[in-house]
Known about the structure:
The complex is a heterotrimer of chains A (112), B (508) and C (512). Chain A is an all-alpha fold and 112 residues long. Chain A is built from four helices and no strands. Chain A has one domain: Helix Hairpins, CATH 1.10.287. Chain A has helices at residues 3-24, 28-56, 62-91, 101-105. In chain A, helix 1 runs antiparallel to helix 2 and helix 2 (28-56) runs antiparallel to helix 3. Chain B starts with 14 loop residues before the first helix and ends with a helix. In chain B, helix 5 packs antiparallel against helix 10 and helix 14 (344-374) runs antiparallel to helix 17 (410-424). Chain B has a domain at 295-508. Chain C has 512 residues and is mostly helical. Chain C has two domains: 2-467, no CATH class; 476-511. Chain C has helices at 10-18, 40-63, 70-89, 93-111, 117-147, 155-164, 168-183, 191-198, 201-211, 213-222, 230-252, 257-282, 287-315, 320-335, 341-348, 350-353, 357-381, 393-413, 428-448, 462-466, 469-488, 491-511; strands spanning 25-27, 34-36. Chain C has a two-stranded antiparallel sheet with strand order 1-2. In chain C, helix 1 runs antiparallel to helix 2 (40-63) and helix 13 (287-315) runs antiparallel to helix 15. At the B-C interface, helix 6, helix 8, helix 11, helix 17 and helix 18 of B face helix 4, helix 5, helix 21 and helix 22 of C.
Amino acid sequence: MSPTTLFGLCGAALVGIGLYGLLTDSRLLRKIIAFNLVGSGVFLLFGVIARRGAAAELFGDPVPQALVITGIVVAFSATALAVALLLRLHEAGGGATFDTPADEAGVKRPDP
Amino acid sequence: MTLLAETVAPAAGGGWLVAAIIFPVVALLLAVAGGARFAARVGVLALPAGLAIAVAIADGVAKHGVLGYYVGGWAPPLGIALRADVLSAAMLVTTAIVASGAGLYALHDFGPPREPGGGRQTLGFWVSLLGAWAALNLAFVGRDLFNLYVALELLTFAAVPLVCLDGRAPTLQAALRYLLYALVGSVLYLLGAVLLYGAFGTLDVELLATVVRPEPAAWAAAALMTAGLLAKTALFPLHLWLPPAHAGAPPAASAVLSALVVKGSFFIVLRLWFDALPGLATAMAMQFIGLLGAGAILYGSALALRQSRLKLLVAYSTVAQIGYLFLVFPLAFDASAGRLVAGTALAGGLLQAVSHAFAKAAMFMSAGLVAVALGHDRIEGFGGLARARPVSLLAFALAGVSLVGLPPSGGFAAKWLLLSAAVESGQWWWAVVIVLGGLLTGAYLILVLMRALQEPAAPTASLRPVAAWREAVPLALALLAVLLGLAGLAPFQPGAGTGAVAAAEAFQ
Amino acid sequence: MPRLLALAPLPALAASLIAAGAPRLSIGGTPLVLLFGLDAPGALLLGVAALLWVAAGAYAAEYLRDGAHAGRFAACWLLAAAGCLGLFVAADLVSLYAMLAMMTIGAGGLVIHDGTPRAWRAAATYVGLALLAESVLLVGLVMLAAEMPGPGLAIDDAVATLAASPHRDTILALLVAGFGVKAGLVPLHVWMPLAHSAAPVPASSVLSGAVVKAGIIGLIRFLPTGEAMPAAGHLLAVAGFVTAFYGVAVGLTQRHPKAVLAYSSVSQMGVVVAVLGLGLAAGDGGAGIAAAFYAAHHVLVKGALFLAVGVAAAGAQGRRGWVLAPALLLCLGLGGLPFTGGAVAKFAVKDAFGTGVTAALSAASAAGTTMLMLHFLRRLAGAEVKDAARAPTGLLLPWLAMAAAALLLPWFLYVPAGLGTVGGATGLEATWNAFWPVALGAAFAFALRGRADHLPKVPEGDIAAALEPAAGLTLRLGAALEGLDADLRRWTVASVGLVLVAVAIGWTLWRG
């Protein structure tokens, strides 16, 4: 098994595990972590692709590396925003899952 | 890197495209630096200037057909291209108009804070509005699928705070649900982009169109990216986040979310299928996307009929109206050529996106004013509203004229074009859906208007006053939606007019 | 505001007098050009409809003097008037559709004016069916537009296209269904008795007189009568005759004078449709103007008689003769009594009915109409009077003016409409042919007198009332949908849905 294949399989496994967590775990913090797992898997796949480009041409393909760095920044911001919202929700007395009744109440009347 | 030779050289006037993206970002930074006391002023000044930039781009597109720009002078595949065609220009101008309207309307709720230390919501609103605007502009002119991914993420980050400005638990939960679902969508999109890059070595829209072959990697990539974008657009049955998020936000924010934000990801679906992967489309896949659209139209309208609160009704109406946008895909599919073709159906979809933006913004704003006046938005308590708030109700009704699709509204022109496309391509079943959707839309809007025309159950002495200028904003937007058909049908009539030709050229 | 309502239709009246056959007005640039023009049937109907809108507007000013919601009434009135009158001058597909929509919205507002549950139910049925009709029409119009060679959407080009279209039958079916609802063809008539009897008197007058002609002018404009289409034409004629007799039969069971009048309108529109159907079957290009002339007479008579109901109810103390005597003439005129306007109208469509079965059916329908109208007159004479007051002159004058117009105007319009000379209508044979069905109808009415009240009472809107249980089913379906939505919006369901959508798109790309 070549290193490229190994890394590719690892990336795929991370995506799979992360998606499973995102779908099934009701705890919001775990969902956020699961999202990061999926992100890591995708970035690893991208690294593999950069590596494969390196095998075909002279040097490593620089474009995926630039994209991965950007992607990590975006994922980091997303995580920060999600965690901040979760904290605010906790402070406001909301539950830490989506299955609490606060959600189905949905819309309260707009404050005048 | 032989692909370089085939790229299109940037056209004149591309600097405006950069300005359209940078300008809201600069305003956003100024607002953050100036704090809450300064934010509203920055926003109010920035909005008309941004509208002028959008108009300048539209003018350039009308003259030259397309505007293009290579960021940093680097051509794709290494660099990033920006490009504005007819679709971009229409959406840029629509966004600028609706954002300006929302900003004006929001001056009452999110004006400069009166007491020092207040105004957290004010700052949040203006920063989010400017951020969403910048992200939308980027989504409309970006020509690189990764660049579009960044635009999508920025759009989500700007939109989520708009949902939960008031910081109450239900809206926070709606915002978090929206964020997490959108993140799942964007990670699927990113995965698809990675696959495309791995298989074809570029993410530039123009270059991809020339090299994409129908093969498993491309199918998987297209499926993942499309599904991710559908989740962000809240197409049925992926609409779980939309009703609570759009109905719980303050009216100005709901207007931006429902009118513009969902169109951002829809626009990227258009770009993906019409520009990047037109040859990958298959009849069955396009019928499937159309099926989801049809489901959205019937299901969303039927649920709107069941809502007892006006803002939820309007939110479900958005779920339904999004469905019309996705009928473009089956209707634009040319079975004999085996690819998507820009024509009547695409023009109809674009017009639907634009007229729905004006109409829905007007609807959310007038719904907000009704809620302020009555102190609630329960439809059964609307008796006497027609006499108490005639202007708000008129704006709501006019916006409804466009949603139902009565002439001369933009909604009518859009429906006419979509129906024409259905008739021309012999896909009568979509025509049935369009007509049924119009009937259901008429039904839920008439229910609201009938309530408002009835006598009040109790005296309406407790009405709170609403400033006349606030009522003027939704009225102006609704009038735009109603009159759009007069201007709107003309450029898109197939076979005539310069607009259709330019649109067709822009896709080649 | 309501005081000025009578002035609004004056430009339309002027246009019908001076603008017939004038060059078309086009608004907007290529390719979307809104066209407005006035052909002979359009001018005829525009003129009489404008006259009715003027008279009913003057009537409404008095009628609404102390009532609430005068502003709302005026707004709806003007919207309906603009759409109704605009329809007669619309010469392209888009403006035709726009006028229809405007008229429907305005008319819906007029029906709910009284705010009673009955009015709401009537308005809901009316607007619902009208929107359905307009949707069907829209599909037909789009199909037609798709086959038109040029970018323009003029109605006469569309009709030329229709005759040669491969989808001719489908398009015709859609258009007839759409306009059929507007004209009240059985079984699409259910909204008419409900709406016309629930609306305030001046509104019922214009609804039953002018607004229903939307369907007629639509059929006149779109049916390709220049070319013989026996199958389609005979089918349409059968539908027309069925409507004509159904209207009479159900109308006889009605107690309220306005409901009787509404069913009479259903019946009369059936006659007009039968004329058009026979014209289509024979390829008779003159059927359009003949039908328009018959319909124009109906505009005047039915508009006038609804006003009479209001005058009688307002208290005709000492002025009873001013209501009942002209009403008797108009009623018999609708049956075709010689020397009334109705006789001219019947004369205009005589050729269309020809001889044999169709002529016999026409005579039978005239007898039936006479019977129904005499039933109406009995109900009118027996109607409760609000108080012992005299009917205000503001109500009496518009009624008398319309009654005079209905009796006399057809005589003066016959020649300008291009139908030939009117002299034949007063000939001995024509007089006898017009007289005997009326006499027969009157004899039947005399025989039936008093017994009509013992007929089984069919509820207003007959079929619609029978269909009401379906509403419960719809409600249950809605509740089930709401339950489904709660499930679909659960996180796990929606995320699995997202994955499934991705898989489905991938699969369809691979297989398709």
